[in-house]
Predict the structure.
Amino acid sequence: MKKLIFLCLMMLLCLPLAAYGTGVGGPSTNGQFKLSIGLDNDYVFNRDMKLKSISVPVEENGNGNGNGTPGCEIKNMYRTMLNVGFGIFDFLDVYVKLGAADYKFKSDLYDPLTGTYEGELKANTKWGFAYGAGLKGAYTFNNGPVKGLIIGGDVQYLRHKQKYRDKFTDAVTSEVFPSKGKVTLQEWQVGPFVGYKIMNFIPYVGVKYSDVRLKFKAEDVAYKSKFKADDHFGVFVGLTYEVIPQLKLNLEGRFIDETGFNFNVIFKF
């Protein structure tokens, strides 16, 4: 039975799993002065954004008064990162993440004076270096009526800056105007969770606050824009499976503020 479960989880690793943001990766910690290495794999469906500021006369919704929010979203983000963790205490780990990311972005553009829809902007990034760091704590009740219960939390920061190319399609003439530049993505996340150990399995559930910021800067035109996440609060559920004491597999899903899954392979020394 254990071999069958392990085979199914390894098959899941090979699928194009959808994820957004950065995964908590399960409630367990390394233990004091213990090292772990993990591989995080993400694929982003989308996340809704909203305009924060822009340096050219383009903004908001086409309802005739210039007030509102354009449709903006991050789409199809691929992110693979090496996660190295170290146990400061039995219940607290510090970790760093290093890897690469690639994604797409699109936004509706409107005239700020008339609210007239002007067209759609689509941007594609190139693979860029991604890095982050965080703290994860978890306490396991080993005795009493709540034996096996795990309570913890995760706090982390992630950033990547990369080149992009975009195309603006005029709504009237259908003419396409290309551009290029650099874009910076930053993300903060705080997520408390509760889990329960059942043999080699640890199912868990949590709530989280996350914030994503984007900053575009074009190279060939005087264009700067900033976007921020539309929704900040969400929930996540996950399952950690201990193949052997040193090797764990983790599958995690997110909802409300983002929708998707994250898959991690974790090896503890």
